[in-house]
Amino acid sequence: MASPIQHDHDIPDDDELRTIYTFAIQLAKDAGKMLLDSLYARRRDGQDGRTPSNPSNEDVTPQELTTREKLNAVDIVTQTDLQVEAFIHAAISARYPTHDFIGEEMYSASHSGATSGTSKEYRVTHKPTWIVDPLDGTVNFTHGFPMFCVSIALVVNQVPVVGVIYAPLLGQLFSACKGQGAFLNEATRLPLLGSAGVGPIPSDAPRRCIFSCEWGKDRREGPTGNMRRKVDSFVTMASEVDGPGGKGGMVHGMRSLGSAALDLAYVAMGSFDIWWEGGCWEWDVAAGICLVHEAGGLVTTANPPEDWEKGRVEDAKLGGRLYLAIRPASDCESGETARQGQERCVREVWRRVRTLDYDRPGG
Amino acid sequence: MASPIQHDHDIPDDDELRTIYTFAIQLAKDAGKMLLDSLYARRRDGQDGRTPSNPSNEDVTPQELTTREKLNAVDIVTQTDLQVEAFIHAAISARYPTHDFIGEEMYSASHSGATSGTSKEYRVTHKPTWIVDPLDGTVNFTHGFPMFCVSIALVVNQVPVVGVIYAPLLGQLFSACKGQGAFLNEATRLPLLGSAGVGPIPSDAPRRCIFSCEWGKDRREGPTGNMRRKVDSFVTMASEVDGPGGKGGMVHGMRSLGSAALDLAYVAMGSFDIWWEGGCWEWDVAAGICLVHEAGGLVTTANPPEDWEKGRVEDAKLGGRLYLAIRPASDCESGETARQGQERCVREVWRRVRTLDYDRPGG
């Protein structure tokens, strides 16, 4: 991929970065409020008359309400996605007109003529670039399940340096800025229990670990489909130690939330030990990667490289669509450092998973 | 199962029930605060010194902290479980001395001499009986993942008539009382979007549904193990419509939270359309069943009965260890009632799942 010439005056220094960080947090709060307003507007519109505080529905038949709601269920989500992204884009353009901007909605719209989603090109240059998902966890949002969020990141030289994830119905705002750590609700440093609190990576990992994974949208059956590749991997991770091929991982728990951004936030929090995923995009992960790094975690690729047993554990490529994240950790009494423990855990996952088949040009 | 003679004066009337409901909500709040205090005590004890607000750790080596934490990680959970249950039991005994009490910890302790967990007998009589899980989602709690809760129910004549589930790190308190509906944080009636907001059960259900499921602790490999029975069922529910045996469910989302009580709370909220589970116990589901019923949902058995296509959809047996819950719904324009839509959804699930192998004497 050709990169434009890099202008040094575009690269924010530490002071500027702190200002940008404060700006991004406020932006996420405002966007999160828009999401909540939209959710509750739907609640009002979809009111079934059982709640006495909404007398305006008295003359409306259930049928009318149902129809109106069925329209809303689709419309509101689309509208909310677009409105929130437009709001964020406008705010960023006004404040940082020289920065690039990539938002999920705008990106998808600009590719509406493409024949397939897989033709999406990776467009992040070395310039400061805002990468935004106005609503991650859309299905959760339509169902009123709290695991939805807005995700805002600033990426410089391909590295996420500011990341903010706000889940307004949970009341949880996760934020990180390069060199400054990661925080919950601007008050509690992540990981939540402190890196000694979450402890070293267990010596028998992935045992005693919480493994977070998503089923995704690719549901083709058959041995070569991504769903089968994922499920085989999930089963190996979950099985008793004598399980498939003697590779059973016997993880402590299997979790699926339906939001990649929140999966990464909970890895940063130390709540999930391992997150393994393929198929998502840079706007799903940019902010989360910043959070995990600043909390002391690691993000590499989901697919085991050829030299997976001994080779270097590389950072995940932002646009690579394949991610494996390991939580922050403390050093171990045995002398193993936190990083060594994390890399051991990475290899234990690579040993147990099938390769996933997601690709993109230029990624 | 022999039932003791039923004393009518033990059965609470509507006024008494409202008093009990208020009492149970306060009890859940107090217990939830104990859980949070325990979590944050662990945070303090496990502090790694990176947070400047904890200078007392300055002279402690990382090794010492790690050891101390490793002890805590086990001890605190056990202690928390026991302490919170003892607190709840004492409060209930003082206030309602004629009521029975079944708590997870006490129950397990009284069976410590049994050779197997499956020998646990069902002990709920027709008397008013409090059924309590002081900490549901223990693995989540040890990891600081917010999906843990206290669950408190009052069961009369085998029917949960009061149910309170409080997830203190989420700040979400779910409560229900027979005949009075279900609520979030004592303010918002469930389902969250109103039953018109969540709409009728989709005509092509389980498509467009969120399917909630848990992997559980039984991880034996092999075709007869419960894990394989579950995974086969998950895959059928998830697969594209042309999937396994033409039975692919193509559900919109697959979710696993690691807490049966919260799974049921989110069914009551309308966030999960379907929850299908085997292996949990009455303390995991008693409060949640009350919530689902009061919100307008349905709870039946996970295992398809012989006449699954046409037979009556029976209520789940409280101690049956097999549960299938369907969210609240509105009537459909086509004339199908909410209940008919829910039963249609039940049969669509039964059509796609394998039977699970969980049993108990007297259940």
UniProtKB/TrEMBL annotation, chains A, B:
Region annotated Disordered sits at: 44-63
Residues involved in Mg(2+) binding: E104, D133, L135, D136, D284
- Please provide the record's keywords in A-Z order: Hydrolase, Magnesium, Metal-binding
Per the UniProt entry, the Enzyme Commission number(s) are 3.1.3.25
Which reactions are catalysed by this chain?
a myo-inositol phosphate + H2O = myo-inositol + phosphate
Pathway stated in the Swiss-Prot or TrEMBL entry: Polyol metabolism; myo-inositol biosynthesis; myo-inositol from D-glucose 6-phosphate: step 2/2
Q: Decide whether keyword Hydrolase is in the record.
A: yes
Q: Which residues form the signal peptide?
A: none
Please give the InterPro entries that the UniProt record associates with this protein.
IMPase, Inositol_monoP_metal-BS, Inositol_monophosphatase-like, Inositol_monophosphatase_CS
Compositionally biased intervals (Polar residues): 50-63
Report the cofactors: Mg(2+)
Pfam families assigned to the protein according to its UniProt record, in alphabetical order: Inositol_P
Highest taxon of source: Eukaryota
Q: Which BP terms in the Gene Ontology apply to this protein?
A: inositol biosynthetic process; phosphatidylinositol phosphate biosynthetic process; signal transduction
Any one Gene Ontology MF annotation carried by this entry is:
inositol monophosphate 1-phosphatase activity
The record's family statement is: Belongs to the inositol monophosphatase superfamily.
Name the PANTHER family on file. INOSITOL MONOPHOSPHATASE (PTHR20854), PROTEIN QUTG (PTHR20854:SF39)
Q: What is the official name of this protein in its record?
A: Inositol-1-monophosphatase
Native organism is: Cladophialophora yegresii CBS 114405
